Amino acid sequence: MVRNPSLSPDKPYLVVREREPDGDGGLANVLTVFLTASECPIGCSMCDLWKNTLKTPTPSGAIVRQLDSAIGDSKPAGWIKLYNSGNFFDRRSIPPTDYSSIAKRVAGYERVIVENHPKIGRRRLMEFRDLIDASLEVAVGLETVQPRWLGRLGKQMSRGDFDAYANWLAKERVDLRVFLIVGVPGIGQHEAIRWARLSVRHAIHAGARHVSLIPAREGYGWNGQSGELPALAPSMLANLLSESVADAKGRACVTMDLWDQDPDCDEVVWMNEMNLNQRAWRL
Description:
TIM Barrel, eight-stranded mixed β-sheet, 8 helices, 8 strands, Elp3/MiaA/NifB-like radical SAM core domain-containing protein, rSAM_sf
């Protein structure tokens, strides 16, 4: 494995300022901090995020220094995402002893968004939630509701595990964001689109506030099968986004990840506009 040679436990490996629909007809300004932290223990087959992780547990105080670097003296505004290429409530990745200091650094933000696996750190989640003066949102990589494919991804969870976690989050007054991957090795285009749409419906039924569709990319994962991924044209992704937004019926925001797409492509321009112009509300 080849890791990012520029990694430092005292600096995030990427900081991005972006906008996304806030669910109330407007746009939220979002500071996304990609934290340099310990490698995720789950080991999903398609994941290439390990390149930006540490081999050892994250040192105490390192995440706080990373936030100081990312936020600086800027006045908090909008939302902040703390993505650590794994699970925020994994004690090896984000030391619980740093929770209080992290909470102080994110004071002033209206929403704090982290990523986590359903089987990791429920007690620590509640501890962190009670420390922050903001809405907490947890992003979960459900990826797909097709049971056989979900098993092949090595997620170490079932659809039932996801559903139980979604119910628990709702009871604990924590919002849910869901990541869904579009396409897996060895299937056709239409099958990939069909299951992605079914997965969107399932995520919304489970109470997701935001659903993010991520077209499968080769990366460094897929257990050597990346060459078997379905080729999904921008027009197919645009149709999927349009149909998924319609399926949501305003109950959730649905967006398409466009990082690897040609920004000058007409369909990609349209999807970017659709990503930013949605209204969602609780029925």
